[in-house]
Structures are given as structure tokens and as C-alpha cells.
Write the C-alpha cells for this entry.
Amino acid sequence: MPKEGITPRAKDYAQWYLDIVDKAELADYSPVRGCMVIRPHGYALWENIQAGLDRRIKATGHQNAYFPLFIPQSFLQKEAQHVEGFAPEVAVVTRAGGEELTEPLVVRPTSEAIIGHMFAKWVHSWRDLPVLVNQWANVVRWEMRTRPFLRTTEFLWQEGHTCHATEEEAEEETLKILNEVYADFVEKEMSLPVYKGLKTDKEKFAGALRTYSIEAMMQDGRALQAGTSHNLGQNFARAFEIVYQNRENQPDFCWTSSWGVSTRLEGALIMAHSDDEGLVCPPRLAPIQVVVVPIYKGEEQRPGVMEAIRRVVGGWEGRFRVKVDDRDQLTPGFKFNEWEVKGVPVRVEIGPRDVENGTAAVARRDIPGREGKQLVQQAALAGHIAALLEDIQQGLYDRALRFRDAHTRDVSSYEELKEAVETGFARAWWAGTAEDEERIQAETKATIRVIPLEQPGGSGRCVLTGRESTRQVLFARAY
Amino acid sequence: MPKEGITPRAKDYAQWYLDIVDKAELADYSPVRGCMVIRPHGYALWENIQAGLDRRIKATGHQNAYFPLFIPQSFLQKEAQHVEGFAPEVAVVTRAGGEELTEPLVVRPTSEAIIGHMFAKWVHSWRDLPVLVNQWANVVRWEMRTRPFLRTTEFLWQEGHTCHATEEEAEEETLKILNEVYADFVEKEMSLPVYKGLKTDKEKFAGALRTYSIEAMMQDGRALQAGTSHNLGQNFARAFEIVYQNRENQPDFCWTSSWGVSTRLEGALIMAHSDDEGLVCPPRLAPIQVVVVPIYKGEEQRPGVMEAIRRVVGGWEGRFRVKVDDRDQLTPGFKFNEWEVKGVPVRVEIGPRDVENGTAAVARRDIPGREGKQLVQQAALAGHIAALLEDIQQGLYDRALRFRDAHTRDVSSYEELKEAVETGFARAWWAGTAEDEERIQAETKATIRVIPLEQPGGSGRCVLTGRESTRQVLFARAY
């Protein structure tokens, strides 16, 4: 049943997204232009996202650290492409402690500059390499058009920064992050399939040698860049003089990488899975996985029902994230509605008849209405719920994958490409230039999202120029 | 044995602290005035501090959220005392996205103003109360004299903000945080006894009705304010119009509280426990609790020793945070030294004779040299280490408590007070004014740290004015 205050997707997808963010109490607008407030339910989801990423980042050998929020303006200017990319969108502190600063301080839009400076201080010999650090932090980019989670002036993210002896090691690191950290997390925990690939020069990070990204498809067929990993070559090492003595005792520039994902991921999660009834959340990341709603009429039924619930949920600690909704003045219907909007994957109802029969009604959020509801023996409930959570997790992935495959078209002419990007991704052979990409973007609003790592082999005619090419690319309109 | 590069405490306590921070690789200086870089070992310690606090904050019913870094300048001005306290030390963004801002944005020095604004938006009725949120964030205060962890321009902290229907509830919250969250954490996990009490009006938070704090004693007898909890009365509710309909359907101002601890705690931990050989870290917070160092001569002994170590540590995952230091080119002595400086509580050594005899040598960091070393059967090792970690945790607390008691003196004259604050705390009856406090501070550099919650009862003569008083206070020089 469509919910009050939620615009149906079919009617206005953009407004539907904003309604979900609002009604599920994920975020709110702040009085500061383009900055959002992440509300407790939205932040609990972010904490689970952080935990899943942090575990993978540490498992691949990285250590967390923390670097200053402020970057001296001159530092940003040391790498020519970097400053060109970021200078237009920085916020600048010019006054502090009641005085004008002699050198303005940029609020970090990303931390290559300040971390590059520290790497130069720490790295002396090949024995100091690799340096593998990660930072959880806030960054600021002065964006013109903002949207909660998807694009905000201030956002939260992690940014990894590494320093290596050779190009091969930097490249290996860059791809390891893309595959073992980002794609693995998004597919397994967010239930969202991604295309992995290389960005074209036009789309790469300001200052990078190569940028890789993972791209997910939203329910309107648009792409969302869910994470990027950059091989920075020796560009930043030259700019910040990160020099080490190699095994031959010769000074050499390091090879560095950087990579990040942000609160944007939460926007992707919301947009990819939710429906007209509210948030739909993959169980592994759901702040509350199971809500238990007592059903009773009058005060005399209450104690028996609550006692049964206490007994049932008694052994669940550490197994599920559970909330027993024992609020007194609210009807079960009101509670069902609230937890559906907030995306709790499983709801358990226990009433007087269940107390008698030793049963419970179990409803799954991903299949609304009666079809998703089942009567289960209390004795079998924990096992049933564990299996159900896994089933929902996998089901969301499968559904997203089917949707993506159905909305990814192989195109062989520009006309077909134009049509395909109206509703999804277009896969095409490509031999065009950056100018060609500009033209397509101007005419169709679509960009090359990635040159996929997985290529079919062989060759074909470029969708625009007709020239023979050995590589395919994915075009899409993007968030 | 004193370590290279660490100035002995007795010679120069301030320099000793800086040397520990540097040699244990906890933090480094950055090119941004007063901002530090928290290095991986220091950040891992901070993560453990965060985890212990976050668990207690959630267990007392609070939820995490996130509010903007920037605060419109006009917001800070809404509460008169608040702006007076913080305006001189704020950093201000005046330019962003290439343009001058029409209203400058203050980088948050604390978030009462922005959160007060959001509370006003969220709270309508008594049913919405209490609101209990916490934020992990960075804040900026433009300090003149900075010192790693203890006072830095940018620092990391948590700030709790709550909103209540009555003064009693706000007061109860303020004290609950002081007792159940802050004092409990610092005493049980940081092994540091604290005095809990009320700040005088002169020392309270800018805009608060009442400020409570916990104060710890460092090894030079100075006080370090380790956490503060403020009952803000209705001051911020009036300034930001946080109004609710009470049970009688009348509009009323809320009562709010705020409370915070910061990376300063890490400075307190370092200063309170460490010695001339480096960091000493309470086991519950140590990034590495047990380091295992293989002892062998030549390549032929190595495999047997490493195999024994693998077998021994095999079952320790999830039980201890362990590092096996299998670096090849370094001598055991070099490794011992490094992990002593970095404050690992327990070191295990296994050599060829241990392999034969099924033994291991176990050294404890808190008792340096031979006295702290024991030979233990490998079969009993895990149990031995578990008990040892507990023993070290408690031993550090006991030692700090003995030191504090030995350096807290009851004083009954101003002369005695002056003498006592040279080496520790002075406990005195007090009936003076804010001007009297100023005078004492000017003459002795000591301030009233707290009016302890635990009072002896009865009365005595004020140490300065001679007037009869029913309350005692604690004077000390402070960090």
C-alpha cells in the first residue's frame, strides 16, 4: 500500500527519493547551504556501512590515521591538474582567532596534498614502503546542485592513500581496492551488482594517471558511481617530493594511489532497493533487522503477550539486531507502517492466539502484503529468521541484477545509443576522442561510465565514428 | 633502561611527553598551525577509546547522528555568553566556490548552535522528548599554544546533545553522563582515577547553567580536565526557540544538556602512565596487547621457532590483540625496544630452548627489566596472559590512585595551598568569589578544578577569606 507522504516512483522518481529520505528519517535539511543533517536512523545505517568497509580495508593491510581538515592554499597548487579540478569548488578560511590569515586555508576537498606532504616526511628508503593508510573524515566541495546523500557540500567518506616503490605495486593496490574492498562490499553487503572498469581520460580524477570505478544502476536506469580508485602515478610524488632510496641506493619518486567512497553509498542503497512504501534495506546493513510488534486488546492481554515476546527474543542478542516495539499508545497498524517506511527487513507479530499456539506471524519487507507473511512455530523462529534474512539479502541482489541486465543494451548505432540511455545503460564499441565524449554528453546527457575490466575480446565498429575498436564502453546518464 | 631520544621525566616533563608522542609514533606535526597528524598507532588507540565510549553512550540510550561542520555566524551570536566564549577562537570561511559568502560560516568550535536549531525543528510535543543524540566529529578552536593531543587547533571528539521536558531530567542526564559514561570509562578502561565535581561559575562552559567535570592527576601533579558535562538550562532553548507543548498543552521551553570528551583523553592516558622507556598503555585500550618475538640464530633455527609460535597463537584470535613480529633483518633486542617504546603490555619470547621445553618467556611492560619476566609453560600461556593483562590493568589504576592520594593535600592556609599546588592538588574549604579565584590564579597559576560531588559534610574556614563554608574545593595547576 503506497504510504502517505511518499510520491510513487512512477510519478516522480526524484521526488520519491527525497520523500523516502524524509519519511524514513534518514536525513534532514540544514540551514547551511547544501549541508545535510544525518539523522539517527540514517547514521546507524552509515555506521554499518563503515564497519563493513573498515573490516575490508584493514583485512587488506591498511591502517587508519587522521590528517588535518585544513590545507594551506599553496599545497593545493603544487599539482597542476589537481588544483585545476578542485580550486573552483573549495571553501576557504581567511580569518581565524580574530585575525586575517597570511595564507588562506582550504577546507579539504580531498587530502592528497596534505598527505603527500606527510609521506615525503615519513618515507626515506625502500624499507619504509609500502605505506598503506586510510582516513575516515569529512570533506567539503562547494556544489551547485545538491541532494541528500547523493551530492552534498559537506560529506563523510573514507579516503585511502598509499605509497609504493613501483608502478606495478601501485596498480596492484588500485585494483585490489576496487575488487576486494569496494566491489566486494557493495555486492555482498549492499546487494547491489556493479560494473567495474576504467574511466576515460575525460572522466578521471584530477591529477591521476588512471581512475577505476564501480558503477551501479538505479531503478530509473541511471548510473551511480559508487566508488573510485586512482593510480596517481608519480604525479603527486613529484609535486610533494616523495622520494625514497631504492634497493640500488638511488633516489627515486614513489608511486602513489588514492581511493574513496562516501555517504553517497547510502544514497545508492536507498535508490536501488526502496519502493513506494518506503526504505528497503539489505539485512546485513539494516540498523534494525527484526522488529517485534505485540498484538493485544486491552491491558489484561498485554502481560501474557509481552512475556511470550521476552522469552522468544531472549536468546537473540548477538544474533540479530532486534527492536521490540512495546510503545503503549500506538496501534499495531501504526507501528507496521512506521517500520515498513524505515525499511526493517523482518517483522514478527505475536498476539494472544500465538501465545496459546506457540506461533508467531513473520512478515518480510521485500514482499509486501499477505504474500510475504507466514505463520511460524516459536521454537523454529530464530532459525527461520536467520534463513529469511539471508534470503532477503540474496533476493535484493538478484532483483537488482535482473533489472540491470534488462536495462543494459548492446548498441551499434548512435540512434540506438540515444534510445538506450533513456532507460538504462548502453554498451558499445568505442574509438572516439574526448571531444566526441563531450558531444555525446551535450546531445544525450550520457557519459562513458567505464571501460569495463571484463571485455568480450575481438573487435567491433565504434558506435559514433565507425572506426574499428577492440574495446567496449558503457554509456549512461549518471547521478 | 632509558630510551634513546626520550628525555627523562625528572629532567623535563614537558619534553618527555613530546618525546613519547614522537617515539611511540602516536602523532606528528603538520604544516598547518596547531593541527597534528594522528599516526596509525595513535589512531588505533583512539579507535579503542571511541569504542569504549560509544558502547557506554549507546547503552545509556543515545543515538549517533551527524550535523554540519559549518555554522552560520549569526547562529553563534544567538546565545550571549556562548558567543562571548567562542567568538575569539573561531576559524571563519568567507569564500567558497570562487565567491565571497554573503554570510560567513564558522567552522564549528562546538555544535550547540546548529543542533539547537535542528532540535527546534524536531521537537513539538512532550511525546517527542527526550531527544538523546551524540556526534563523533572534528572541531576547530584557534588556540595560541598547542601541544599534541592535549590542545590542538583541530581535534576529534564526541559531543552529546540532549533535550528534556524538565530541569530535573536535564540534571539527571548531565550527571548520568558524568558518572556512567565518562568516569566509568576513564577509571575502568584508562586505569585513571578521577575527581568528579561541579565547576565554579568562573570555569563553567560558555552558556551553561552548570558544568560538571572529571579531573585526573598527571605524573607532575597537574590536573587534566578529562571530560565535561553541561546542564544548559533553558539558555539555548530560549536562544533557538526549542519549544514544546507540555502535558497541559501549554508551550514551554525545553531544558538541554551537552557533554564531550576529545582526543585530549589520549594525551591524559600517555601522560598518566608512561615512563622513561616509552608509552605505557592500559591493556584494554592497547592497539596491540601481546607481541610475540621469535628468538633464533641463523636460518636453520627459524622454522622450528616459527612453527611453535604459530601453534601457540593459533587459538588467540578474538581473545587478545596479537602481533607476531616476524621481521627478518631485525634483532630481538631492536624489536624489544620498539614494542616497549610503543607500550605493548605483554611480550612473549620463544626460542629454540622453549621449543624443546614447551615454554615461553613472558615480560610485562609495566615492570621493566628482569623482575617483570617469567618462564611459563606454553600449555598455560593463554590463561597466564589473560590474568596478566587484568593484573596490569588494575595495577596501573592502583599506582595512579596511590600517586594521586599522595599528592592531594588538605590545606588550611593560603601559604599551604601555594605550596601544595607546586606538586599536586590542594583540597580546601572555600567561600571566595570569582575575583578571589582570579587572584589565586594570578598568584599561583592554580584554579579551582572542581567542587567535588563527594563532600565530607560539616564546615570549615575558607582557605582565603577565613569565612565559614560548607563546601570544599580542589585547587590545582592544569593542562
